[in-house]
Design a protein that fits this description.
The chain is α/β, with parallel strands linked by helices. About 30% of the residues lie in helices and about 25% in strands. The protein has eight helices and 16 strands. The strands form four sheets. Strands 2-1-5-6-7-8 form a six-stranded parallel sheet, sandwiched between helices. A six-stranded parallel sheet has the order 10-9-13-14-15-16, with helices on both faces. Helix 4 packs across helix 5. It binds ribose-5-phosphate. The site of ribose-5-phosphate has 14 residues, from strand 13 and helix 6. Ribose-5-phosphate binds next to strand 13 and helix 6.
Amino acid sequence: MTIAVCNGTHGDDARARTLARRAGAAYLEVEWHRFPDGETGVRVPGPVPARVAVFADLDRPDPKFLPLVFLLDALRDLGAEHVTLVAPYLPYLRQDARFRDGEAITSRTFAAALSPLVDRIVTVDPHLHRYRSLEEIYAAEGVVLSAAETIGRWTGAHVDSPVLIGPDTESRQWVERAAAAADTSFMVLEKKRRGDRDVSIRVGELDMLAGRTPVLVDDIISSGHTMAETVRGLLARGMKSPVCIGVHAVFADGAGRLLADAGAARVVTSNTIAHPSNGIDVFGLLADALRA
Ligand code: R5P
C-alpha cells in the first residue's frame, strides 16, 4: 500500500515535498489558516489515503506542536488508518530525568501527548540516554535511524587523517559507529554540565591525536558550549583546529559565533534540522524508511 506525505507544521512545506519526492510517495496538500485571534485552522482538501506520513520539523517545538496535534487528529478523523510521524529531530528527549527537585520530566509528557495520535514515529538519532528505546515512553512503534555511518563516510571523504572525538559519554553511540564507517579511531571525553550554558570538558590523554585532525561528533549542537569547550580544550593542548559535526543543528542564538570564536575549523551538520551548516544529507535514510 502506498503512503502519502504531508506537511505537519504550518511552516514551509519544501522539506515535506522533498521527502515525498525522494520516497516516491504522493504529496497530500494541507491548508493551514491563522485566524485573527491567533488560533490555527487546518484542512485537508483532498481524500485522505489509508496510510499517511506527516513530516514535521520539531526543533523549537512549542509553537509547532498544537498545529501538529490538530493535523494528526484530523487525519484519523478523515479516514487515515495508519499515521506515521516523520520527525527527523525528536525534541524534549534530553529532559529524561528529574534533575532538580520538583522538575517535570517533559520527555514523558511530550511522548504521552503524541502517542495516541500516531502509529509509528520515524526519527534520526533521538537522544536516548537514560531511556534505551523510544518505546519506553512512546506507545507508538519507533523507527530509529542513525546518521552515524553517513557522518563517518562524509568524514572519510572530506577530512585528512581524522580522529573522531565524542565530547561526553552519551556521544559514544554516534562516534563509535561514525569512526568505524570512516575506518579510523575515536576517543570519548568527559563532560560536566552545571547549567544550560555552563559545561566543562576533561581532555585526557591525547597521544592518539598527534598529527591528526580532531573531528568532534555530537548528536545536538544547541547552545554550542559542549563543542566550544572541547575545541578550546584541544587547542590549548596544541592540537589542530577541530572540525565539528552535529547530527541536529538546533543552534540556539549565538551558538555559531561561539564555535567560530572558540577556533573550530569548520562546523558541519546533517539536515535533520534546516540550517546553513547542513552538509550531510539524511533524507535518503528517511525516504528508505518510508518505502520500507
Ligand atoms: C547532551 O546530552 C547532548 O548529547 C549534547 O552534548 C548537548 O545537547 C549539547 O548541548 P549544548 O550545545 O547546549 O552544549
